[in-house]
Amino acid sequence: MLQRTPGWHKKRRKRSIKIGLNAIQCHGMLLPNGRWRGHQMHVVHRQPLANPALAYHSLHREILPRSRAVAGCLERVTRLRWRCIAGVLALQFLAVNAVAVQASELPVDRERYSDAVVAIDRGRWTEYQQLRPALDEYPLAMYLDYFELSRKPSAVRPGDAQLFLQRSAGTPLPNRFLAVYLQRAGQEQRWRDFLAVMPTEPNSIELKCYYFRARLAASDPLAAWEGAERLWVHGESRPKACDPLFAAWQKAGELDDEAVWARLLKAFDARQRSLMNYVARQGSADLQPWAERLLQAYVQPDQMQKRLQPGDDPKVADIVAHGTAYFARYKPEAALVQWQYFQQRMVFTAAQQAQAERELALRSLFARSDVNLAWVEEALARLGDDLLVEVRLRWALEEQDWSALAANLQKLSVEGSAAPAWRYWRAVLYERDGETALAQALFREVAGERDYYGFLAADRLGLPYQFNPQVVTVAAERAGPLRELPVVQRIQELYHHDEENLAHSEWYQALQLTTPEEQVELAALAAELGWHRMAIDAANRAQAWDALDLRFPLPYRDTFTRLAAQRGLQKTELMAIARRESAFYAGARSPVGARGLMQVMPATGREVAASLGTPHSDSALYDVEHNVLLGSAYYRQLLDRYDSNRVLALAAYNAGPHRVTRWLNAADATVPVDVWIETIPFRETRNYVQAVLAYNVVFQYQLGESGSLLTERERQLAY
After folding, report:
1. Taking a C-beta distance cutoff of 8 angstroms, is the pair 224, 247 a contact?
2. Coil, strand or helix: which one is 428?
3. Chain-wide mean pLDDT for the chain?
4. What's the pTM value of the predicted model, to 2 decimals?
5. Are 336 and 372 in contact (CB under 8 A)?
6. Residue 396 exposure: Cα atoms within 13 Å on the Cβ side
7. CA 719 to CA 709: how far, in whole Å?
8. Does residue 669 belong to any structural domain of this protein?
């Protein structure tokens, strides 16, 4: 599920922003209207070639000079940040086509494009060659070239690959094409071609292995061996493409016991026992006893004190440090006793000590170990880790141990102390200690924020919520040209062809190459075009936190209103859930399989649909109406289960009702609502509940309605 973007709450003065994007010439080529001076860039086809996958290569002579000029402009950006701003944005579309397509031509071109894609997919090259010339100025012409080249990467010459990369710069296509081309070149051991197209180390692990094999073939063993060792020393298995590189590296005598031991430790931490067994066999006879001791520590970490003799050999310290961190995951109290035994008898490096003690502290906190608590308190002061301190603070809140809360708040860093959560709880402490003036001053400060804690603090003081909205307007002279940007045209066409993932890739690429001012302009355009997820992403990237119309739009308003009324729900609650779950993207799918606007799991969807007697299929979860129908019905079921308590229902919507019930039953005593939310065991669920409650308030504001963060009953109930 989507995570809330940090900083959505930040306070800003109410003001109107008017932004204009000025065209700045780069090498004298970019015109004020965003067009490119000189010859239009388009694909020029020859007659059908023996290899139809190489049909567009006469382009090189036309485009390369201007491509180099653009590259020169980009190089200067690092030195002159505010030069060539429009040139950077222009890269999104100039590499593809510089001529806007007439609206009257679109229906025909769209049909031709679809036919061309089918022809490529089915290998009907003669048909494709007949279709392609007429699509030179269609916004997705570059995608046809990508599909064409990717179909037969073995036949693409390095120069042609380089040309495509230059022409498609600023789009998602270079990385996609490189992945296909380089993988095939590596598989076929075309090392010269590989290095011609990728002279520097790539990002993919598999491609890195091919790259260093290519360097070895190019008589550069030093680079190859350095890369081989770096890739080999890892806690998990590597792709098979790496095996020949590792074999050559080992045959050259470059693998030593130091590398073997380093990989053994990484595999230990990654809990890869089979890999540990394999790596151990690569070491010398001298290393074998140490590898055996490490394996024993993995199998029986509680026996290290009996099996290891404290000494000066750094491998003993390695085994103890890594073994303690591993043991602490299961039995933190026994692990601490064993750790202290070794600490008294041998010296550990700072890194070894930090590894063992951080895991000991974290696992002791998670286990709520009173036995280890005194040691944990001392370790927190020494380790200086805000994450650990926050776990301790929530434990103190869970037990309503206000003195422990006060003591541990002092252990936070300056940055950690400034977080809204801990400013709020510091104000609560002031209030409990009778320091009313300090409490009210800090509550008032927190209440100026537009977030969960700001709304909580405002309720404490009886103050109105602060929304601090900004109205974003785009300069009139920019509104038209923005719509004509070929990156926008490409996205529109990708949406038309149901290529939503490619459309989003285009958008993210555009945001990476634009300034905050341009990002806000693009966000406004996206909102106007109904691309709500893209508008939200662009506004967040620009840190336009107060542009509420962009960040909290009101799409599908009629659907939410009607279905909320059917279930006796507030429409803004459904909007808030959808905003948090999918940013209003109907095609969203989470890593665990949740789908659609309200991220309904397929099993949940089937169950709810059956209870409603509604026809259903898993694919229907991407339909807005159907998704909100099932999502709202499921949310209603959760509210009924928890007696209309939205706090519990939202926690259950995110983490599952079985977990919420378990959390409630596990508590030794009841706590106030703000404490219960703050101490939800899952960080994702805690953030989720806080976000949806706050988003509901924002959507009420957007609709001109009044509302509160919590109902009176939710505030008064003991949890």
Report:
1. no
2. helix
3. 88
4. 0.84
5. yes
6. 21
7. 17
8. yes
Q: How far is CA 698 from CA 200, 598, 645, in A?
A: 48, 18, 20
**Cα 275 to Cα 166: distance, rounded to the nearest angstrom:** 42
What was the pLDDT predicted at 312? 81
CATH of the domain at 666: 1.10.530.10
**Bridge-based pairing state of the strands 470-474 and 15-19:** parallel
In 3-state terms, what secondary structure has residue 531? coil
- Sequence-distant (6+) residues with CB within 8 A of 453 are 420, 421, 423, 424, 446
25 pLDDT higher than 60: no
Contact 331, 302 (CB under 8 A): yes
Write out pLDDT tens, residues 305-357. Answer: 999 999 889 999 999 999 999 999 999 999 999 999 999 999 999 999 999 99
Cα–Cα distance list, 79 to 82, 84, 531 (Å): 9, 11, 34
Long-range contacts at 393-400 (CB < 8 A, ≥ 24 apart): 393/422, 393/425, 394/678, 394/679, 395/365, 395/368, 395/679, 397/425, 397/671, 397/675, 397/678, 397/679, 398/667, 398/671, 398/675, 398/679, 399/668, 400/669, 400/671, 400/675
- Owning domain of residue 624: 557-716
Phi, psi values for residue 63, rounded to 5°: -100, -35
Report the candidate in 151, 241, 158, 154 with the shortest Cα–Cα distance to residue 193: 158
Is pLDDT of 58 > 80? no
State the first-to-last Cα distance of the chain, in angstroms, to the nearest integer: 26
Nearest CA-CA partner of 505 in 275, 173, 274, 164: 173
**Structural domain total, the chain:** 1
| pLDDT band for position 100 (cuts 50, 70, 90) | low
Q: Residue 702 carries which DSSP code?
A: H
Give the list of residues 6+ apart from residue 235 with CB closer than 8 angstroms, or none.
263, 266, 267, 268, 269, 270, 272, 275
Rounded Cα gap, residues 512 and 169, in angstroms: 13
Using CA atoms, how far apart are residues 432 and 38, in angstroms rounded to an integer?
Answer: 73
The beta-strand segments (E) located in 302-425 are: none
CB of 149 closer than 8 Å to CB of 177: yes
Q: Is residue 165 in a domain?
A: no
Residue 611, in any domain of the structure: yes
In a domain, 41, yes or no: no
Predicted local distance difference test score (pLDDT) of residue 101: 60
Q: How many Å apart are CA 85 and CA 19, to the nearest integer?
A: 14
Pick 68 or 174 by higher pLDDT.
174
Q: How many C-beta atoms surround the C-beta of residue 668 within 10 A?
A: 7
| 100 or 561, greater pLDDT | 561
Catalytic positions: 581
- In the chain, what are the helix, strand and coil shares in percent, each to the nearest 5? 65, 0, 35
Residue 24 is predicted with a pLDDT of: 26
CB of 686 within 8 A of CB of 703? no
Type of residue at 407: A
pLDDT digits (tens, 9 = 90+) for 253-288: 999 999 999 999 999 999 999 999 999 999 999 999
